[in-house]
Amino acid sequence: TPGVLFVASRIHQQNDNSPNRLTPEKLCDWYENIHIQQVVALSGIPSAARYEALPIPSPSSAHPEPLSSNPPSPSPPSSTSSPLTQPKYNAQDEPFSNQAPWLTVYEMPDLEFRSSKEFKGLDGQSEPERGLLEGVFRRARFDTRFYEEVGRWEGEGGRGSPAPFLLTAALAPSDDADFNAWYQSEHFLLLSRIPGFRRTR
């Protein structure tokens, strides 16, 4: 069964300023120049593409107040105008891409490979050596997901290398058959008209 392995990663908050502090530069250098090379060297994962999330404005900056040359008149204090009673922005409401800025997509011609001894021997699937465990795996989070491919629609020029830009969407349709029919007959046609569109899966 073909599919993909999605690995979203981020660095845990760190309070120390020691030389061993895990920085984005250190994480990306290890991941791109060492870890990915080890993964695609496996017999069941022929290729990978790594992406970095584009910045998404927070709710407070997405809808700025319009500028006015006349400042508003001060209003009398009341219980409803207190900032303590206003809903506060919750970091848990952030888009997933803000929480996990890096995403790597690994092609897997057969998802059963994930059960193999070869795959389970990877750092992260099995416990890494102490230096790597302390320096990376305990200072970063890697959310790993396996997705079975249930459909693929190619646009013009869609075959070949990975797209330079990736849009992901997690959906939970109430009826798979209706959703797939709508996606194939309507939604894909709209997507295919977007300049630069390559494929959807």
UniProtKB/TrEMBL annotation:
Q: Where is the composition biased (Polar residues)?
A: 84-95
Q: Where is this region: Disordered?
A: 56-95
* Name by which UniProt lists this protein: EthD domain-containing protein
Organism the protein comes from? Clohesyomyces aquaticus
Lineage, please? Eukaryota, Fungi, Dikarya, Ascomycota, Pezizomycotina
